[in-house]
Every structure is written in structure tokens, then in C-alpha cells.
User: What shape does this take?
Amino acid sequence: MSCKRIEERPGLPELVLEHGSARVRLSLQGAHITQFSIEGEELLWVSQCARFEKGAGIRGGIPLCWPWFGASLDANDWPQHGFARTSDFQLLSQTSDAHHTGVTLTLTGPVPVPSWEGIASLEVDIRLSDHLWMEARTRNCSDRDLLIGAGLHTYFAVSDSRQVSLPALTGLAYLDKTESFQRKIQAEPLSIEGEVDRVYQDPPSQVELLQTKAEHRIAVDAWGNTDLVVWNPGPTVAAAMADFDNEGYRRMVCVEPAIALDHRVRLAPGESVAIGQTLRRL
Ligand code: TA6
Assistant: This one.
């Protein structure tokens, strides 16, 4: 059991948590988990072309989208998925006992979007045991209402995205971002072929990610989310992204508990909201 700071990526300090055979690596920029492995098996995908640079989003792992998810509803020129993922966090505390190793991080960097008028605290708890538990908590520290969105933009590593299934989503309504957010029903089991970008509304709290030709299944238990986003860019969109390696879209599927679009939570002064998930290999 340990938590140690490493400096392999200059300018981007990282922490490594270890507990038994489980390992988490995370960047203090964005409180961004870039590795979660169990017995050497990587559960998260990170692009071979990911940029590990100050101020750049990291393609893969678990980017934390905050204080909005996707495009901002308030201004066209605000960055997609908010600014937390490119902002600095500080280590607030760490714990370690027989059951888990954990850290709490807090957002400290200056708000890089001056026209965003929110005053809020954001704390992220990460706990590692035989599974990964994480929660992001926002508190409105201002004297006016604050609208908050968020997302745990989790990139799962898969052997072939075409063989992935998410049975819990069958029958749910979703908004199809590839078709101007048209509302549709997932009548057939979801299959990942080409670009998939869907916001499932009112999702169940537990979703299993299955891979037909691999033994391992992953259970995602989420709370505090109003939506579950499933994303795979497919070959064309991936090829247009400089930080997506060739064939990377075959090796990943994003399953993202989120407070998306107009589901943003209105926090009165002093109120808090939390969004979290556990990732467990079955
Ligand atoms: O969560 C899905 C999504 O919003 C997609 O629409 C796609 O743009 C993806 O996230 C990646 O966004 P990013 O800003 O990291 O390139």
C-alpha cells in the first residue's frame, strides 16, 4: 500500500497509488487518472499519441469534465468539457489502511475562463482497493445560484470495440449527438460500429461492459449522474484527432457518468453536489 509522487513527465506531476495488485497513476493536472490496472491488466485506455503537457487535455484515462460537460450552454468560446481537466489540483490528504489507499485532491489553479463567474470548490476523492472508487464534489461558495455539470469521461481499454456490449442500455432513450441530439430509443443492443456518441438519459446505476471474446467484464456503478454517455469516434473522427493513435478507436470505448446538457444541477449558495463511480473487474 503506498502513495508516491513521481516526476517522469516534466511539468506534469503525478501520483501513483498501489494497493495489493491494483495500481492507479494520476496527474495532478485535472486530477486525471491515467492508469488503473489490476494484476498487470490495464483497464483504461490511453492513446499512444496522448499529450502530457501543461494546459493540454490528456487523451485517455479518466478526464474529469467540470463545471460543464460537452459544449458550454453559456458561451460558444468556452472550452469543451470545462476547464478542470487542464487545471492544477493539489493533494489535500492521503489515507492508507488494510482496506484501501486513497487521496483527496482539490482544484487550486486559477479559473482560465475569466467570464465564468462561478465561485466553487471542487474536491476529488480517489480510493483504490480491489476496485477503483472515485467521487467529485462541488460546493457553491458564492452568494448566488450556480449551475454545475460534470462528467467522468472514462476511456475503457477493450480488445476490439466491435465486440463490446452494454446490455443495460438496451431499451433506454438517448440523444444522438451524431444527429444533432435527436432523441432515439436503443431498441436493439448497442453495437459499436463507426462513430457512436450517445447521451443515455435516466440510466441504471450499474452498467456492465462485456467483451465477447475476452474473459473480463467490468462493472461500472455510478451515482450523482443524470446521464451516461457512450462514445467511440470511429475511424474517420479519430483520424482527424492528432492525439488519437491509429487503430486506437478499436481499443477503447468511453462510458461516462455525466450531468450533461441541460441536466445541470442548480446549487443554491452553500449547497453541494457529488458525482462518482466505482470500476470493478468481474
Ligand atoms: O463525451 C463524448 C464527447 O463529448 C464527444 O462528443 C467527443 O467530442 C469526446 O467527448 C471527446 O471530447 P474532447 O474534448 O476530449 O476531444
Notes: The mean pLDDT is 94. Residues 57, 70, 80-81, 153, 177, 197, 229, 231, 254, 256 surround 6-O-phosphono-beta-D-tagatofuranose (CB under 6 Å).
